[in-house]
């Protein structure tokens, strides 16, 4: 526990490493609202080693941004060590990401998709632990069983891991199938190892923090999504979203970051406001905004719309509008985003699939009727529609009587010089050296051109 107490300062309230979201301005905002330890976003070790620009942007920090842990992903012990050596002077510890469940981690073969390769992970952790001057920590996800999860944690501890963050979800629990994290796995690991254990998952409000610490025995709690929707979560507050939004924009001016990060944070801070149908135009404008002035304008518009309700000058008679989420707090306050359960999601997907199949079946078996209600074919229906578009054209035109070729049963060409169909005309022209302008058959003309061209070539050779 020396690392936890003396180097980290015994932090309990921790903001998770989040790709495109835990950049310096957001870390500083989170620390202002009670966060005691922050991580950099997950950094790709290979790119970090090769790209100086990427390295400079990733290590952007300041004196107020401490203590800070830098997190890396990767699968090569030597490259991971090289990245750690380049970053160790800028942080108090290096964390290895063994918990990312996203598709990009699967393609790159890192994160949670290394959790079955224990010899490799032991090599990575031990190599970094023995050669870095700062401690090495790990962030993991649980397995199906507690026994395997505990064995996994002990293996990492034996390799040199000095702190373990345990996410109580499986690798497969992500997106709409996220569901709840199982804290009992965190408790099992906490009871089995001798290093600090941090619990990750299910932290949406200050009451979750207190309950998690009591149930897991962890030294601290880590939150990601809860922090993004309410950066004041660790203070037990639900401020009007425009307050942290304006503070964050000021920090983003002082410590510039990509506009896509800013846009993403504002979408989450104002999630419940933007879910109201009458604010759909604001949502569209925020999605298209690409300057700080445009971001500020949108934030101030939301503030002007809802501030009088927040101060009690106007009465807010409802907590939601039809079509928006069923929330308890007024929509302008920072508050958790509650996902639907995986079971409900699966049911909705199944219902949508059946409805799509029904629509497809109806479209493939469409029945057509004329004005008198008689069933007709699709071809007849198209004819009736064509007639309706040209009512001035007579309905009953006499059928054309086609004169037949004198040599076969095919209809003759209307402009044929020899009163033949095209096939018979072509045969006649070929045999008798003729042209037919009606069928555009030029056998005679082309033969004459060929003879003329051949004679010119002969004269040249002579």
From TrEMBL:
Superkingdom: Eukaryota
Reactions listed under catalytic activity: 5,6-dihydrouridine(17) in tRNA + NADP(+) = uridine(17) in tRNA + NADPH + H(+); 5,6-dihydrouridine(16) in tRNA + NADP(+) = uridine(16) in tRNA + NADPH + H(+); 5,6-dihydrouridine(16) in tRNA + NAD(+) = uridine(16) in tRNA + NADH + H(+); 5,6-dihydrouridine(17) in tRNA + NAD(+) = uridine(17) in tRNA + NADH + H(+)
Q: What class does this enzyme belong to in the EC scheme?
A: oxidoreductase
EC number(s) per entry: 1.3.1.88
Can you give the residue ranges of the DUS-like FMN-binding domain? 15-236
Statement: the UniProt record of this protein carries the keyword Secreted: no
Q: Which GO terms describe its molecular function?
A: flavin adenine dinucleotide binding; tRNA dihydrouridine synthase activity
Provide the alphabetized UniProt keywords.
Flavoprotein, FMN, NAD, NADP, Oxidoreductase, tRNA processing
Q: Which cofactors?
A: FMN
Family assignment from sequence similarity: Belongs to the Dus family. Dus1 subfamily.
Q: Which PANTHER family match?
A: TRNA-DIHYDROURIDINE SYNTHASE, TRNA-DIHYDROURIDINE(16_17) SYNTHASE [NAD(P)(+)]-LIKE
Name the record gives this protein: tRNA-dihydrouridine(16/17) synthase [NAD(P)(+)]
Q: Which organism is it from?
A: Phyllotreta striolata (Striped flea beetle)
> Lineage, please?
Eukaryota, Metazoa, Ecdysozoa, Arthropoda, Hexapoda
